[in-house]
């Protein structure tokens, strides 16, 4: 653990330049919008793209965030006790009764998020409750963390309003987000809130990387991925929390390297999400793309710019950074610099996908980490309580708030 400076050297001693970039506020908002019915009209807050991003003098981009919340796909939300199986759910590997295939049931339209995978690493049973209930309680700590990320984004992003009219518009916006953020990284050495979409281990996964930095030593050109965590307490988190944060960044490292090192499966993407690659994008989106030096009429053309951009990017640095900040004043508590572990992280991803695909039942958090239950909003209805009571003669679980 080292207390490294929280900002890259190129910005020390001077104001960070403002970039206008199409970057999502809400990790899943854009893709959720993109994958709803084509007739749906969603109002988005975004940033206007201005001069060509391929010119070094470019200082503008555009960002989009949903102004209204959408109900979960499928209509009404099931009760916590509703463990009913979807028709045709696969049988568990051990031959026992079928278990819910959460990926197919709840994430078919929009794909998985990195948070789904890391949430399963924290506790699969808790993740099962979250998916079945359709929501998770938002705590004060979570709200404060979201506000901090928004503030960090505003330091390098300026927002205006745009409107998208189709799911193809939504997807085009997300890929434009990545393109403009990547060029900000290449020309300025720094970007924030970078959306990323990847076909990882036979599943479509989406996420937003908090920060990406270019190394400052002048010779190393592999970008450094950074995740910012806010803390209520003036202390560093427990090891399970650090492990979960490290796993999150390793997921992004896998996604980044796969995105820049392999051809994007364009046809598979169109087919999976039922997108029309030749659908004419809205005038707003076409204007934004043209002003960014990316003239395009449809999503297929936007994806060509995206794949060209990915081809210019090197793989991410094996050194990853978790930065911990105190919520009340944003002071840096410490930076956890750690090395990418491809074998452990890939095995962990595959393990969590087994659960999310319904190939096995959810596991409980390990016995030595059962203290997590004291901060889980589902503790009162979780079977782990009865299991522990049967094995130890007590069940001292206290309902509280989920760790942020």
Automatic annotation (TrEMBL):
Residues 61-92 are annotated as: Disordered. The lineage of its organism: Eukaryota, Viridiplantae, Streptophyta, Embryophyta, Tracheophyta. This is Exonuclease V, chloroplastic. It comes from Eucalyptus globulus (Tasmanian blue gum). Gene3D superfamilies: 3.90.320.10. It holds the Pfam family Exo5. InterPro entries: EXOV, PDDEXK-like_dom_sf. Belongs to the EXO5 family.
């Amino acid at each position: 653990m080292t207390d490294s400076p929280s900002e890259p050297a190129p910005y020390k001693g001077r104001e960070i330049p403002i970039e206008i970039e199409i970057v999502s506020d809400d990790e899943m908002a854009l893709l959720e919008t993109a994958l709803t019915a084509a007739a749906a009209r969603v109002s988005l807050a975004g940033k206007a793209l201005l001069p060509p991003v391929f010119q070094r003098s470019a200082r503008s981009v555009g960002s989009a965030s949903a102004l209204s919340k959408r109900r979960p796909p499928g209509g009404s939300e099931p009760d916590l006790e509703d463990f009913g199986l979807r028709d045709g759910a696969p049988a568990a590997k051990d031959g026992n009764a079928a278990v819910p295939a959460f990926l197919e049931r709840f994430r078919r339209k929009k794909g998985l998020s990195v948070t789904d995978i890391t949430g399963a690493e924290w506790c699969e049973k808790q993740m099962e409750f979250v998916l079945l209930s359709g929501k998770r309680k938002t705590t004060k700590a979570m709200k404060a963390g979201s506000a901090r990320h928004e503030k960090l984004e505003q330091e390098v992003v300026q927002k205006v309003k745009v409107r998208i009219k189709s799911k193809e518009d939504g997807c085009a916006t997300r890929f434009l987000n990545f393109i403009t953020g990547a060029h900000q990284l290449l020309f300025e050495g720094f970007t924030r809130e970078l959306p990323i979409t990847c076909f990882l281990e036979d599943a479509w996964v989406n996420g937003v990387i908090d920060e990406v930095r270019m190394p400052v030593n002048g010779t190393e050109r592999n970008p450094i991925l950074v995740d910012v965590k806010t803390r209520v307490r003036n202390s560093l988190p427990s090891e399970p929390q650090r492990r979960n944060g490290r796993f999150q960044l390793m997921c992004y490292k896998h996604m980044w390297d796969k995105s820049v090192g392999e051809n994007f499966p364009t046809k598979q993407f169109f087919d999976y999400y039922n997108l029309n690659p030749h659908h004419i994008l809205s005038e707003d989106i076409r204007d934004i793309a043209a002003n960014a030096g990316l003239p395009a009429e449809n999503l297929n053309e936007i994806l060509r710019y995206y794949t060209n951009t990915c081809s210019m990017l090197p793989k991410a640095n094996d050194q990853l950074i978790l930065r911990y900040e105190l919520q009340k004043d944003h002071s840096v508590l410490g930076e956890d610099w750690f090395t990418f572990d491809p074998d452990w992280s890939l095995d962990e991803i595959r393990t969590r996908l087994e659960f999310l695909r319904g190939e096995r039942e959810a596991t409980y958090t390990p016995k030595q980490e059962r203290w997590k239950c004291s901060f889980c909003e589902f503790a009162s209805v979780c079977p782990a309580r009865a299991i522990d009571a049967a094995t130890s003669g007590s069940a001292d679980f206290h309902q509280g708030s989920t760790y942020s």
